[in-house]
Specification:
The complex is a heterodimer of chains A (106) and B (204). Chain A has 106 residues and is mostly helical. The mean pLDDT of chain A is 83. Chain B has one domain: Up-down Bundle (Four Helix Bundle (Hemerythrin (Met), subunit A)). Chain B starts with a helix and ends in a 6-residue tail after the last helix. Classes of the chains: A mainly alpha (106), B mainly alpha (204). The interface between A and B is large, with 51 and 52 residues.
Amino acid sequence: MAMAEGHKSNAGRYVVVYICILAIAFLQFVIAYSNITAPQMFARMLFLAVVEAALALLFFMHLSDNHGLLWFVVVFTVFVLLAMQYGWTDSFRELLGAPWSSYSKS
Amino acid sequence: MSHADAMGGHAGVMEKPAFSVPAKKMAMWLFIIADTATFAGCLVAYGFLRNATPDWPRPFHSITNVALMTFILVTSSLTMLFAIDAAKAGEKAKALQWTLITAGAGALFALLHIREWLGLIGEGMTLLKNPWGTGLFGASFFSITGLHLMHVTGGVIALVAVGIRYKGGRYNADDLEITGLYWHFVDLVWMFVVPLVYLLNLSH
């Protein structure tokens, strides 16, 4: 049963994290209108999204309170994401004909 | 109910729960991890398609709608936390109130999303074709945002159901917290959908 007595409110911490997440989201919108290349834009936005997600995981979903579960989630998620990267080289080949077809050009 | 109670007084001889997390919460975490793989698969496949397709459309003229949707969803995560805080303090009426506010924000998000879909459909975008470029855009856009919208809709229903049952005494604060985990996950996924699907496809 959830305990009602002695519960300490975390509202202040939640509001701080909420403001941080909103600020990071705002930064993403600023980057969307900045004069940089698409890969640079992609990298910066993805980095900020990862920071946002980390804040939500640690403080909204309380993973900061349970280090065992935190490591389980992080290791599993990183493994899944890495396992999905094998197709990228093929997407570049379809777009540019590179790197394999470039050998025949020389 | 404590873990020892759930084990019928056999806690001393039973294995402790994994990561010191109650079984229901662990089940939700496993669902979240599996769903992370689903969304990651969709977004990576989307990235693959976008990277390999030269005439990828950039149909979004304004960020107003997606910015508003983001604000609403992130704010709904905060209101969900207030609901859980109130529930843990034993303030049932306040907890239900914050839960219903969260559900209302989710419903508003869904309505804005549907309005955006209808706008794009009105401009000639379907699953297979659109006026701006490759038809793959419609398929990937509707698939990813549709999957997310389905999660939001399911979350709104779950929030209302769990909130009402919590107020009625059938569920406790832990159940509300577990529903909150799902809601935060829906918010978390949106943090990746916005830059990849919307902001990288602005027409400027």
